[in-house]
Write a structure and sequence with these properties.
This protein has about 550 residues and is α/β, with parallel strands linked by helices. It has helices spanning about 20-25, 50-65, 80-90, 105-115, 130, 160-170, 205-215, 240-250, 260-270, 280-295, 315-325, 355-365, 455-460, 500-505, 535-540, and strands spanning about 35, 45, 70-75, 95-100, 120-125, 145, 160, 185-190, 200-205, 225-230, 250-255, 275-280, 305-310, 330-335, 340-345, 370, 375-380, 395-400, 420-430, 435-440, 445-450, 450-455, 470-480, 480-490, 520.
Length: about 550
């Protein structure tokens, strides 16, 4: 009688690589489409099979230029099919794609490109004037490849034409190498509102896991019959991972190019029968205003959800889309350091029978953490985690398989706790169901007489006033209280409200000491490169700092 235990079977180990997303899209979902809008508003249509073949040609071309494992290949591009081809070809050949934020100052772009040691850059023809402002400050750049998004490419200055390179490359599949799943695939930089921008590396593994979770029904829920419009730029946290999730699931993609105004986005959603769109709140505030002006005129019946992130979406906007236009908002939160998805506001089964007000409260929250993302909030760095009671405020900390554990060059080490949690800088409450509600950024919270005042709560309430389009609340110096809240307000066309009317609108919801001391009417609130309100500028110009 044998005393040996039976040999247990083992699972085959295959690395989690972006290569699988590309090959799956090109074969299993080869007929899915990629539509790209050019600067002149013409549209180019390709299939995932086309993208796969062109990505192979791009890899051959880059290899001929000396791109090898670890080479940084930068992109200075709008959202279009060539940018998608770089998203897959560069990491799948073992190099690293580095997306440059074209809304940054040229000095910042020069710093970022130098810091990342970029050697090759893909740049849209329409963005060459911007590139010219910082190109000489990046000595590591060896090759400039121009994507002809707005006309013929002039190669007389040593630039290379993207389409010519692809046409001259071998028309055979590129031999994609076996890679370490923890190898770098992409570098994204933070916007650098405080200090220099910092680089965050996304690995193949983190990207694949992020895509798998993003496809889940209770998160972003992409599937093969979706038509996805990433209005969020591909240079902003990998367009929230949507291009990769679309490749994984076979969802078709629609790219808007440089046309991000509300009317252009609306028209593209209608013409291409978009089912899922994604962008920051400022885009959708403008779209809601347009739809309200012309109710029922534009057929958006195919839209099943609009994903909103980047900053908190006002509850009034979420309700407006849902009640007046039948569009459901998916409110999500994340950061560049999170690859970027962290939480999603999804109604749990027992809440689906709740009244509209209770549902709106959940849908306007930042949501509960997605699978594998852990959260806690703390009042002091060395203090214990705070209770999940929906009332106690503290800084949100998180960890997970796609949460960064350092920046490029090991900068900003103080953003991580001794036990390995990332400090987000967001001040939040967490309720017993796990729903997170951001009350402020740590640097934006108004501290009046030792009490915290949530600028986000005041902004959301102000934007529910029928005359207000946008509002940003910031801290102003005060001799007695240290800080007091001031509100910058943009009114809707043809509408106005007095300071007393705005204050009365808030008085029913907040204690008296929360009410802004002043209201500053503006034509436009200053924004960061990613569309968030630039409160540092408001504090400087109107807060006495």
């Amino acid at each position: 009688m044998s005393t040996h235990a039976p040999t247990l079977g083992r699972m085959m180990h295959r690395p989690l690589l972006i290569t699988h997303l590309l090959e799956r899209a090109a074969t299993i979902h080869g007929r899915a489409t990629v539509v790209s809008q050019r600067p002149d508003k013409t549209r180019v249509r390709r299939t995932y099979a086309d993208i796969g073949a062109r990505a192979s040609r791009l890899a051959h071309a880059l290899a001929a230029l000396g791109v090898t494992a670890g080479t940084r290949v930068a992109t200075l591009c709008w959202n279009h099919e060539a940018h998608l081809e770089a998203y897959v070809a560069v990491p799948c050949m073992g190099a690293v794609v580095h997306t440059l934020n074209l809304r940054l100052h040229p000095n910042d772009l020069a710093y970022i490109a130098r810091h990342a040691n970029d050697e090759v850059i893909l740049v849209d023809r329409s963005l060459l004037p911007l590139f010219a402002q910082f190109a000489a400050q990046v000595p590591s750049l060896r090759h400039v490849i121009v994507v002809g998004d707005s006309g013929p490419v002039d190669t007389s200055g040593g630039h290379r034409d993207y389409e010519t390179l692809l046409a001259q490359a071998p028309p055979v599949p590129y031999p994609w190498p076996d890679l370490d799943e923890n190898a770098a695939a992409m570098i994204c930089y933070t916007s650098g509102t405080t200090g220099n921008p910092k680089g965050v590396v996304y690995s193949h593994r983190s990207t694949v896991l992020h895509s798998l979770v993003s496809a889940m029904a209770d998160t972003l829920g992409l599937k093969d019959d979706d038509v996805v419009l990433p209005v969020v730029p591909m240079f902003h946290a990998a367009a929230w991972g949507l291009p990769y999730t679309a490749l994984l699931t076979g969802a078709s993609l629609v790219f808007p190019g440089p046309h991000l105004d509300a009317a252009s986005v609306r028209d593209l959603m209608v013409k291409e029968k978009v089912t899922v769109a994604a962008g920051v709140p400022t885009i959708w505030l403008g779209l809601l205003a347009l739809l309200d002006e012309e109710p029922g005129k534009h057929d958006l019946s195919r839209v099943r959800t609009t994903i909103i992130g980047g900053s908190a979406a006002p509850a009034a906007m979420i309700a407006g889309f849902r009640e007046r236009h039948g569009i459901i908002i998916t409110h999500a939160w994340g950061m560049t350091e999170l690859n970027p998805l962290g939480t999603v506001a999804h109604l749990k089964p027992h809440l689906r029978a709740a009244d509209a007000a209770a549902q709106l409260e959940v849908l306007a929250s930042q949501g509960a953490p997605v699978p594998f993302v852990e959260i806690r909030h703390k009042g002091e760095d060395d203090g214990p985690p705070l209770p999940w009671d929906g009332a106690t405020m503290g800084e949100l900390e998180t960890r997970g398989p796609w949460v960064a554990d350092s920046y490029v060059g090991d900068e900003g080490e103080d953003r991580w706790t001794a036990d390995g949690w990332f400090k987000t800088g967001d001040v939040v409450t967490i309720d017993r169901e796990g729903y997170v509600r951001i009350t402020d950024r740590a640097k934006d919270v108004v501290k009046s007489g030792g009490e915290w005042i949530s600028s986000v709560a005041l902004e959301n309430a102000l934007m529910s006033h029928p005359a207000v389009l946008e509002a940003a609340v910031f801290a102003a110096r005060d001799e007695k209280w240290g800080e007091r809240p001031v509100a910058a307000v943009v009114f809707k066309d043809g509408r106005r409200a007095s300071d007393d009317e705005l204050r009365a609108h808030l008085a029913t919801r907040f204690p008296k000491f929360w009410l802004p001391d002043r209201f500053v009417a503006m034509h436009q609130i200053p924004r960061t490169s990613t569309g968030k309100f630039l409160k540092s500028k408001l504090r400087e110009e109107h807060g006495g700092w």
